[in-house]
Amino acid sequence: MTTDRDDRLAIADLLQNWAMWRDAGDWERFRTVWHDDGWMMATWFQGPAADFIRVSQEGWAKGVSILHFLGGISIDLAGNRAISQTKMTISQRAPVHGVICDVVCTGRFYDFLEKRDGRWGVVLRQPIYEKDRIDPVDPAALPKIDAAKLATLPEGYRHLAYIQEEIGYTVKRDMPGLKGAAVDALYRRGAGWLRGEAVTPQMFLTPIAA
Q1: Whole-model pTM?
Q2: In whole angstroms, what is the distance from residue 184 CA to residue 178 CA?
Q3: Smaller CB count within 10 Å for the chain: N or C?
Q4: What is the mean predicted confidence (pLDDT) over 58-77?
């Protein structure tokens, strides 16, 4: 019989493996961190984990550069269910108006996890985007940012959204940030998950009323 500590260690290991295997392109092992019905929410993609793996592979082959760095992990356990929050940064490199730039976005991974047949897996991952910045790789080369467009993008990930739209992705505009209705709704869903309530992807695809 596993203990609370065993479960926490297994979840922490899974969360570390998510970032390591995804960023290394170790796609077969990356599949193992998800349950079969797992779902990924990101600025540039919202859908089943299997599709997320496929489009990540396609982006990898085209030279899309997205890396993840993890910090502290907080885990709330309730039997075979858990909610974890992991401090993270997302680092993406891409050309912006002809200038190679790095965007770094700081936030948290908010994960809905479940233990099935003795194995923990991600049921749904929803990042929280708190703040970001953009820097040219060559400090002498400054991109001509469209300030009006930048101002229309969500505060917590506006530079990340800008660079992703520049390379052709469609960015979801109502992702949770540090404060606001979207993140408050996410916390309520997390609490409901721990109480045994159902959580469906549709809840995350429907815009949150302010």
Answers
A1: 0.95
A2: 9
A3: N
A4: 95
